[in-house]
Amino acid sequence: MRSLRVWSNLLAILALLVGGVGCRREAPPSFSPGAEVQELTAGLEDAEEIEIYEGLQSQIAEVLRKKSGTPDKPIALGDEETSDQLKLGYAVYTHYCTQCHGVNGDGNGPAATYLNPKPRNYTHGVFKFTSTPYGKKPRRADLIRTVRRGVTGTSMPSFDRLSDQEVDAVVDYVLALTQRGELERELAMIAYEDEELPNEEGIEEIVSELLVPWQDSSDQIVMPITPMPPMTDESVLAGHKLFLDNACNKCHGKFGRGGSMEKVEVGTDTWGNKAAAADLSSGMFRGGDRPIDIYRRIYSGINGTPMPAFEKLFQDNPDAIWQLVHFIKSTGDRRRQGKPPLSEADMPTEEPATEQPAEPTKETEPTAKAA
């Protein structure tokens, strides 16, 4: 009986302890200095230099606090104070996103070490899958679509169960983190070069300049130059020939199976990670599998990666982009259709030369003349 009372008391004490711990409020998270700010003092040995750059690091942190707030009380760049929208965005981001993308939005969350490809680092202001031209900022709708559908073939899941209000809020929060990161990188570069930061007026000018590309992106959507023609065996074959003739195979391999499958090295991306050309035969198109999504990847390239824009190459033959889209879609669908991957037997052959018409003679005058 006594033993039972002892165990009951121990369990009650344990419950109180656990309950007490659970009721404690966790300290709000804080931003950490970005890599460029940390680099200011890396490798320094001179005490005077260390003191100067540590002071600059503190000044940068203070400017960022004033202009961008804290993680739980964020301020959109250019605004004076936080908003209910951003507070909701913080709550959604903390619950669903911090584990991978980190508090700073730099892709260094606790889970990032175990993920490949790595979570996106927002602080560079570069987003891969956009509807805007190469080198331009994404439209807000691009980020909403990524949150809604996820990124196929990566650890970025679909958040289609979030409400519209939650998606809008978390996208605004991501934009706030992104622009904070851009400001931090800019200030770190100025500090490194000038050994001082601009005055308040100069910082306001930097903020204004950083916001212009974001404001301009809303009306820079890429739309097809020509309507998509019907997808036929002939258009797929023409696309395959274009794929080979225009060196797409140099990165994606002649069978479209990607750099990793066909042992093609393409370098690194903007974030310093090893890049790999997509395996088109997988049918997993990270930027979206609609024809318009693939069209934009070809036309505009993919920001931050070795995938270039082919806009100028096909400016005199815009239908060629659609033929490439047809080939890529067909290649990605083969597996679903139970067909084997492309092989040598599927390589397009040269079309037989057609007999040239004879030069017109006096007896066979042409029926029309060029004006």
Automatic annotation (TrEMBL):
Keywords: Heme, Iron, Metal-binding. The keyword Ligase does not apply. Signal peptide: none annotated. InterPro entries: Cyt_c-like_dom (IPR009056), Cyt_c-like_dom_sf (IPR036909), Cytochrome_c-type_DH (IPR051459). PROSITE patterns: CYTC, PROKAR_LIPOPROTEIN. Residues 332-371 are annotated as: Disordered. Residues 360-371 have a biased composition (Basic and acidic residues). Residues 84-178, 234-332 form the Cytochrome c domain. GO terms for molecular function: electron transfer activity; heme binding; metal ion binding. Pfam families: Cytochrom_C. PANTHER family: ALCOHOL DEHYDROGENASE CYTOCHROME C SUBUNIT, BLL4482 PROTEIN-RELATED. This is Cytochrome c. It comes from Bythopirellula polymerisocia.
